[in-house]
């Protein structure tokens, strides 16, 4: 499991051609931070558009989030006084919304690699999300001019949080050729080479303040336990997460020294999430090995549907479905991350941000 956790920037105002433009966030991610993109992809099989998704959010109806309530990014944004970036495919998205809120490009099933999650039919890989970000830049340049647009994008905060699908919905599944083309280490190397290329493209597009989040113990999500013979965590999946985190830490540090004005941080959440799963009572949970929303005793249920049964107390479960955490678990992680990274409220003025364009790799038009 990977906890998608967002790096937040202090709220600031800059007058741009008559617009009071906030310092905003741009989020690149997967289902852990998707806030509605996939629900607007009509052929996507990675969906959270049926009850009981969203049961504890707003009016209780599905809203595109792959949980019962809020994502970690929702919670941190609210607590430090920043607006939540809207989904790129939100019908209300326009230039003014971008300038005021930023954009969330995250897509359920998406990965660092284009081939990841192919059986979901439609999803935004990270390459595709970067292409969409380029389009966002174009419309903002047309709105306020290149000079001020460059300033706007260079002052923004950026989050990249993908990788778990590249293992769970690619390398660890025999139906994908990557599962037999690579060894554990060469696959991680492949991911790092691809991610480095993607970060270089983002830098060429003005991305300076960037947080990349690592992976948690993927072998302990309910799906992986259900697929094991004894119901316990699958060590291979979790060990791959450790390899990924170690390689990403090294790559980011090296890349930061090579790219001008780059301020890159790596958010490691493995130990925190592992402790929550191993010692749930310590954090107020009763269950950390099965989903709150499941199809009676049939496992794995894969998704939450109207015919599913719900646990009696959603606040006592770490996991909402086979893949994703509950609102309560997200809140716990958000609170710990706020403390760990010393996030301050956006309105008190004390927060501090951590400190020729390459061609994009091809990605299918509908993904």
Automatic annotation (TrEMBL):
Annotated signal peptide: 1-18
Molecular function GO terms recorded: hydrolase activity, acting on ester bonds
CDD domains hit by this protein: SGNH_plant_lipase_like
Name of the featured protein: GDSL esterase/lipase
Protein origin, superkingdom: Eukaryota
UniProt-listed PANTHER family: (RAPE) HYPOTHETICAL PROTEIN (PTHR45648:SF183), GDSL LIPASE/ACYLHYDROLASE FAMILY PROTEIN (AFU_ORTHOLOGUE AFUA_4G14700) (PTHR45648)
Keywords: Hydrolase, Lipid degradation, Lipid metabolism, Signal
UniProt cross-references to SUPFAM superfamilies, sorted A to Z: SGNH hydrolase
Region annotated Disordered, chain positions: 348-367
GO BP terms in the entry: lipid catabolic process
Organismal lineage: Eukaryota, Viridiplantae, Streptophyta, Embryophyta, Tracheophyta
Organism: Brassica carinata (Ethiopian mustard)
Annotated family: Belongs to the 'GDSL' lipolytic enzyme family.
InterPro entries according to UniProt: GDSL, GDSL_Est/Lipase, SGNH_hydro_sf, SGNH_plant_lipase-like
């Amino acid at each position: 499991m990977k906890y998608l956790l967002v790096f937040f920037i202090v709220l600031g105002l800059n007058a741009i051609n008559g617009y009071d433009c906030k310092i905003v966030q741009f989020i690149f991610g997967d289902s852990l931070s998707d806030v509605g993109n996939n629900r607007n992809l009509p052929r996507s099989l990675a969906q959270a558009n049926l009850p009981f998704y969203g049961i504890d959010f707003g009016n209780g109806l599905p809203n595109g989030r792959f949980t019962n309530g809020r994502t970690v990014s929702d919670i941190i944004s609210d607590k430090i006084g920043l607006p939540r970036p809207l989904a790129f495919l939100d019908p209300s998205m326009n230039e003014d919304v971008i300038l005021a809120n930023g954009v969330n490009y995250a897509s359920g099933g998406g990965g660092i690699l284009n081939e990841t999650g192919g059986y979901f039919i439609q999803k935004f890989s990270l390459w595709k999300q970067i292409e969409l970000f380029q389009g966002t830049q174009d419309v903002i340049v047309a709105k306020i001019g290149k000079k001020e647009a460059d300033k706007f994008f260079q002052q923004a905060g950026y989050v990249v949080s993908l990788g778990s699908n590249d293992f769970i919905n690619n390398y660890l599944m025999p139906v994908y050729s990557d599962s037999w083309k690579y060894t554990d280490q060469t696959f991680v190397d492949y991911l790092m080479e691809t991610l480095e290329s993607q970060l270089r493209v983002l830098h060429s597009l003005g991305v300076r303040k960037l947080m990349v989040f690592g992976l948690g113990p993927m072998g302990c999500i309910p799906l992986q336990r259900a697929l094991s013979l004894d119901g316990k965590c699958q060590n291979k999946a979790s060990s791959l997460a450790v390899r990924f985190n170690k390689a990403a830490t090294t790559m980011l540090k090296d890349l930061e020294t090579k790219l001008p004005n780059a301020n890159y941080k790596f958010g490691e959440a493995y130990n925190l999430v592992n402790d929550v799963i191993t010692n749930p009572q310590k954090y107020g949970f009763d269950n950390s090995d099965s989903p709150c929303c499941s199809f009676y005793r049939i496992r794995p249920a894969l998704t939450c549907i109207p015919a599913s049964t719900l646990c009696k107390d959603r606040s006592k479960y770490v996991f909402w479905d086979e893949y994703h955490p509950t609102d309560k678990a997200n809140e716990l992680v958000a609170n710990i991350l706020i403390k760990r990274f010393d996030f301050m409220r956006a309105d008190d003025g004390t927060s501090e941000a951590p400190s020729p364009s390459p061609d994009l790799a091809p990605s299918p038009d509908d993904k």
